[in-house]
What we know:
Layout: E1 7-11, H1 15-24, E2 29-33, H2 36-45, E3 50-54, H3 62-72, E4 77-82, H4 87-97, E5 101-104, H5 109-156
Helix pairs in contact: 2-3, 3-4
Amino acid sequence: xxxxxxxxxxxxxxxxxxKALSRILRDYHLVTAQSGEESLLLAKEIEFxxxxxxxxxxxxxxxxxxxxxxxxxxxxxxxxxTGYADLESAQHAINEAGVFRFLNKPWNNLEIINAVAxxxxxxxxxxxxKDLADQVRRQQALLKDQDAILRALEAEExxxxxxxxxxxxxxxxNEDEYE
Length: 179
């Protein structure tokens, strides 16, 4: 496994489901848990790129778990895996827990692989957009500071910030001002 591999949390109360998903997603750094409670403890210790949770688990269902998980790791992508897909459940998962994708059991291995790849690419793009927006905000603050300095200079020495440039890039000095 690549050290830079995305970290994925797999949550399901059935050990055989966790083993099957682990085989399919072996190219990633995987952490497994068999309950929402156990997963929340892991989420306090490890930063994940993606979490895939079963919808129906004893104790805490997948949506309830993901609503708590999102408070700990809002930037992680979230998916629900279920054998009991219905429109109302899907809407609830998307609206309440910001679920990126709803996957059905039994699954198609290729569908799981592709869904994970798309989710991780989506996360990468969101992070890149956030980084670029932060960079723009820093640049705007710098320009604002520079503009304030220029206005202060202009107030102190009117015309100091006005420069006449020649076509070759040299500065044109009006000699009449010095006579």
